[in-house]
Amino acid sequence: MSPSATSNHLANGTNGTNGQNPKLEFETYHNVINNDLTNTAKTRHNINPATTEPNPEVPVSTQEDVDKAVTAARGAFKPWSNTSLEERGKKLVAYADAIESYKDEFAKLLTAEQGKPLAQSYQEIGMATTWLRAFSTMTIPDETIQDTDERRIVLRYIPLGIVAGLIPWNFPILLAVGKIAPAIITANTLILKPSPFAPYCNLKLAELATHFFPPGVLQVLSGDEDLGPMFTTHPDIDKIAFTGSIATGKKVMAAAAPTLKRVTLELGGNDPAIICDDVDVEAIIPKLAILSFLCCSQICMMIKRLYIHENIYPRFLSAFTSHTASLKVGPGTDPDVFIGPVQNKMQFDKVRSMYQHISSEKWTPALGGNVPDANPEGKGYFFQPTIIDNPPDDSAIVTSEPFGPILPCLKWSNEDEVIRRANEGKWGLGASVWSSDIERAERMARRLEAGSVWVNSHFDVAPEVPFGGHKWSGVGMEWGVLGLKGYCNPQTLWLKKGV
Question: Exposed, middle or buried by CB within 10 Å (0-12, 13-18, 19+), for 52?
Fold first, then answer.
């Protein structure tokens, strides 16, 4: 690929705002800078995690590419911030319609790069379009702090400027849209940086966006592990919105400090779910299995620790392992598959290491436990779902986030004790309590230290509901009006009514 840019994409494509479907092909992949599709001198590719076969080539961006995108974003910011909320909302809705029109192509691409089953890819795309439409009508109203005969004091929120959205590999479409929508509706400009492990859907999202947003408003740069620091240290980027691991989140925060960038960090979780002894075991088992093994357990808010009351533990464990064993493992393109592969070789090695602990730490597997071959070439990054029977509280499977389909089941007997155990550690993303006694469940839920706490569910999310972590699981909140405020500077406006 040559480093030259194509002609302006809006000039060659159909303008999606006129009701016609814009043209989008899914064979070649480019950066989007100032609404131009650009290539780079160096390229790279990822692999399909189900087959280990190569996916197409993608750009490897340089500092020069970042500087060009930031310059374009800065130039676009002032005119974009002067557009009306109604106009920005209409563009988001038209963009959502266009994504929906390409849902088949996006679903196939998502499964090819991430590995999740096609049904889960369609679900992610459906959530993304829901998020765009919901944010299209979301507003931050001015807040009147004081209104007297002498003066009125108003708290208002104005856009920050240039936002860099750093996207993870587990939910690349939804989590990109989860930054696109709030940044756009609050009149910021946005540059996406996909994960090096999953750049394809993000590149196509931004290419499609050229049909709806002015040049410089929404851009994307693909790259390797060197690209992230170019964003976090850039002096003219105003905010970093990052989703990823705690370790990387700390690096992002440190790198952003010298230029005093605003940061929102949605980081890892080790979510506990507490099962009380009054539940209908047969009714909740299928739900808990989905909420533990969806997306091969590669979701920050999946259940990672399952605390089961000792009165029902044997019956629960038997039913839970039986149901989990029925979940089909395989390539996401195969019918009825629920658990696809782990997304990349790095994560495969980490999860495989956790499986090796089963014998070295003498854990008792109630299901699974087989360690796959260290070389998955030609086989895919697959694991059989594994359930560990009541391991010690200080074991690695309890104290860390595996991000793979291995789950500890733990006994509890005393409410104070299980709350203490659930709250242990630096994690604080999500938690849940399951009970037929709603008063009891709410009492317990209010004692849990997490950004999202559910009763009789887990991993419920909605665009209008703020989402983020406590402790080391995050800084700030995404989504909802509170999330929108994170893309703005608050400003107090003092209005004297007389001189």
Answer: middle
